[in-house]
Amino acid sequence: MSLLSLSHLTVRRGCCPVVDDVTLTVSGGEFVGLIGPNGAGKTTLLRAAMGLLPHDGQSSLAALPARLRARAAAFLPQSREIAWPVSVEALVELGRVPHPGAGAEADRQAVDRALARMGLQGYRGRIATALSGGEQARVLIARTLAQETPLLLADEPVAGLDPESQIRAMQVFAALAAEGRAVVASIHDLGLAARHCTRLVMLARGRLVADGAPAVVLTPDNLAEVFGVRAYFAQTPDGPVFQPLGVIR
Ligand SMILES: Nc1ncnc2c1ncn2[C@@H]1O[C@H](COP(=O)(O)OP(=O)(O)OP(=O)(O)O)[C@@H](O)[C@H]1O
């Protein structure tokens, strides 16, 4: 089932398109890694898809009334700012705002599930602003999980996490996809993307230049042309292994 449909999505900044005529569909079961160099348009694409930026073309999410959109998709922005010194539990509970009629017990269970998925049960009573940067990032992921939407859009969700937390977070996203939901996440770590995503969408200067399974997208030609790097990429008994090796321009 399609959970997100973008049709000729275009976002202009000044005269120039920074997202340029992007068409794609995301279905339940997919964990899509949105990849591309700095400035490629990943954040702009995610924000326009959520209806947070003026755009041309269509996004099925942006077309929804705000109340329905908040039940269709959760959004994790790139900015990790936590404004108020509230408890972790209270912050994660904010993910339940789009579900006013769910009831206290359903809300509590959703918060418990989100905290458990992110390994944060022991942090429930901690003040969120007094956590480390990586801990705060995990709490903010938990808040989006508590929203329990069919689709999660996340802007660099694993940036700044330690290796264990990165792998655990990627496994959580892959598990959501395996449950029939969908995740679209911008990711700079191509090794993590190659190992955990079911599909990669590669952007360059706002345009979609490759879309498919990691092995189809992370080709030597695409890596050279889009990222200016060469890399080692192999299927191993332990799964796909990707390591950038050097700069070639
Ligand atoms: N508010 C703005 N005004 C003008 N240009 C902007 C604005 N925000 C972003 N841009 C430009 O749009 C382009 C795409 O930016 P975007 O943040 O979407 O890239 P990105 O792929 O997410 O990059 P990064 O990996 O560095 O986070 C960049 O060239 C950027 O300079």
From TrEMBL:
UniProt KW ATP-binding keyword: yes
Ranges where the ABC transporter domain occurs: 4-230
Gene3D superfamilies documented for this protein: P-loop containing nucleotide triphosphate hydrolases
Top-rank lineage group of the source organism: Bacteria
GO molecular function: ATP binding; ATP hydrolysis activity
Pfam families assigned to the protein according to its UniProt record, in alphabetical order: ABC_tran
SUPFAM superfamilies given in the database record: P-loop containing nucleoside triphosphate hydrolases
Xref: PANTHER family: HEMIN IMPORT ATP-BINDING PROTEIN HMUV
Protein name per the record: Iron complex transport system ATP-binding protein
Taxonomic lineage of the native organism: Bacteria, Pseudomonadati, Pseudomonadota, Alphaproteobacteria, Rhodobacterales
